[in-house]
Structures
1.
Amino acid sequence: MTGNYRIECIPNISTADPDILERIAEGISSIAEVKLHFIDPGLSANRTVFTYTGPAHAVFQASERMIELALERIDMTTHQGVHPRMGAVDVCPFVLLDDEKYAHDLIKAVDHFAALMGSKGLPIYCYEHSARQPERKNLALVRKGQYEGLAARFTGGDLPDEGPKTWSKEVAKFGATAMGVRPLMVAFNVNLAGDTKENLLIKAKHIAGLIRERDGGLPGVKSIGWYIPDLDVVQVSCNLTKPTEAGVCDVFKRVQELATTLECQAPDSELIGCIPASQFDQCTAQNLGLGRFKPFTAHRILQID
């Protein structure tokens, strides 16, 4: 599990509790050579995205510490939030930042890390490039049924790839984690305005259906429409899984066009976590209206190829 190639880890933790987040941040930052770029909590989602990078061996050490701290402090039996989730550490993706010649090494290293975390009691479903079953490549399918459906999945034989295979009080507390190697992805939400919340939510869901790849929309776009109570905003929430083909500038422009046809507006947007500098080749952060809810600063821009 050693390696000097650079990787990124972007775990999604099922809490927005500032005390827990501080402890996890301290744990990640305590590992030499690891840079914690950003912590992005969402109150209504009750979910936080961490972004950190470094040499592979160091990032795995930081991830082990992150998982230990999250499992000590998060109880999924009482968790509520608007975002789909199935565990305390809901998703733990690893992204290669160096030459593709290291791709196989990273997949092997993540397999080893998943086995290690599984041996410590964490149920893990391997997804994306690490998927061991074809149907588990897609995160949405891995997380289908969410936390509330996990017990039935265990009893029905839809078991994790690593970790416990029997439902118990301990497993109920942790839930399960989706872990794997995936390509670079951008989490990007476009805000809607100009109508009632109820109408905007209908329109957001309609726009999401038009732009998502699986329904014939933009390449690599996964999207849903939702309302975020703590921000009092309706959004078209997107994961851009092929950002070099359909990036934030493309998605923002398309959502604005569709919003106009539906007699509403898409005045600005929200970035979750960090973004590669290359995403601003066709537009600027100002063009996208970033920074309405959280300051958009240079440390959120990753200088990677």
2.
Amino acid sequence: TALKNARQLKTLIDQIFELAHLEGGQVSVTLETINLTELIYDVIAKFSLDASQKHIEVSVDTVRHDLLIHTDIAKLERVLSNLLENAIRHTDKNGKITLSVHDIDDSQCQLVVEDTGTGIKKEEIAYIFDTRYRASNATKSDGKHTGLGLAITKKLLELMQSDIKVKSELGKGSAFSFNVRKANFGN
């Protein structure tokens, strides 16, 4: 019990420091060109055991597997990890999570992480990115969840000049989306 509580406290402290660092404006963005689909599959691989233990199907929906984007790899990986981890936590056994990529125009594409989970109450959606807010659909934690993941995600996307949007229906699931810049556009 002591070890579990110490690990949970360490995770909370790490996330508080990460959020303070992001809010302090001390974080720089290092842009590189990467294959978006490869990054998505890498992130999915990190959570494959968690998803399989709950019998959750995780799939990728994209027509292009060669889509190059210009972004900060570490920050985008953190964003996708936070969103996928939340989706797994809030999706019941035998549910489904889809990561999809849609072309917006010549300069941007949109990433969407959609689940068939518990969903979010309409009146709570405006607050889910606040650091001090805990939604009523918050699940009992195994010690890994601190409630700061969405606040960190929003700050990371702001640094990358993107904005996160959410659509959700209680009992039917949620879809989080944001845009990224395609490579070779305006470089």
